[in-house]
Amino acid sequence: MKCKIVRFKINNMKTNLLFLMLLISIKVFSQECPCVKTAIIGTDAKASPIHNNKVVAMDNVTINLGESINLYTKESSGKVTWHKDDKLIENTLVSPKETTEYTVKSTLNGCPEAIAKVQIQVRKPSFEDMSNDVAVFPSPANDFVTISTSNEEIKSIQINNLTGGKLKTFEYRNNLKQQALNILDLTSGVYIVTIEVEGNRMITKKLIKN
After folding, report:
1. Among 51, 70, 106, 127, which is most exposed with the fewest C-beta within 10 angstroms?
2. If you compute the radius of gyration of the chain from its CA atoms, what whole number of angstroms results?
3. Cβ-based neighbours of 176, under 8 Å, separated by 6 or more
4. Residue 8 to residues 11, 38, 42, 43, 190, Cα–Cα distance (Å)
5. How many CB atoms lie within 10 A of CB 36?
6. How many Å apart are CA 164 and CA 204, to the nearest integer?
């Protein structure tokens, strides 16, 4: 049932019974349809149909690849559901791997469906492969990979997968400028190697494991 503003034009109020029946009808209609905000009775009564179902989604946001974010609404009045590609999302804690648009819907009995959209942008890591300060070799590698700097000491090395998950972390305090790492337990694929050198400078490299 679609909600409408109740309109009625009474010319001469022919009978009290008719007026009483009209008031009863308005009361029942208002109870059945929560969208009714007002009923206008009188000569030349005019009003636009309105409803009280609304939804305001969260702002568009940017996250790093591998991060999660909880979808939420700033304001809503009905039953709220989230959707991706017209499919219902049961868990609103999402970890998109690429920029994704989500739709939130508010459903209120008797009211038109309210819809809002939000875009989650995903920032992917960039590789500084043009830097000659640090070398990662061989790449592709099978069992061991060597990290070597031109003249700076290595403070730490971290290996992540492409979704940002930390797989291996190594810290050094003996002024190393070259270090071999055992990667035999890593599965074949592409990984991100972040090398911290003196001065807290971070250099990111790509590693391919056979």
Report:
1. 70
2. 31
3. 153, 154
4. 10, 13, 7, 8, 71
5. 21
6. 13
CA distance 196 to 85: 41
The answer to whether the CB of 55 falls within 8 A of the CB of 78 is: yes
Residue 34 preceded by cis peptide, ω within 30:
no
Q: Are strands 114-123 and 61-64 parallel, antiparallel or unpaired?
A: parallel
Instruction: Name the H helices within 11-135.
Output: 16-32
- Please identify which residue in the block is written with the tokens 């009564």: 45
**Sequence-distant (≥ 6) Cβ neighbours of residue 173 within 8 angstroms:** none
pLDDT tens track of the chain, all 210 residues?
444 444 444 444 455 555 555 555 544 444 445 555 444 455 555 555 566 788 999 999 998 776 789 999 999 888 999 999 999 999 999 988 889 999 999 998 878 889 999 999 987 765 554 567 788 899 889 999 999 988 888 999 999 887 777 888 888 888 788 989 999 999 888 888 888 888 778 888 888 888
172, 176, 182, 188 alpha-carbon torsion, rounded to 10°: 100
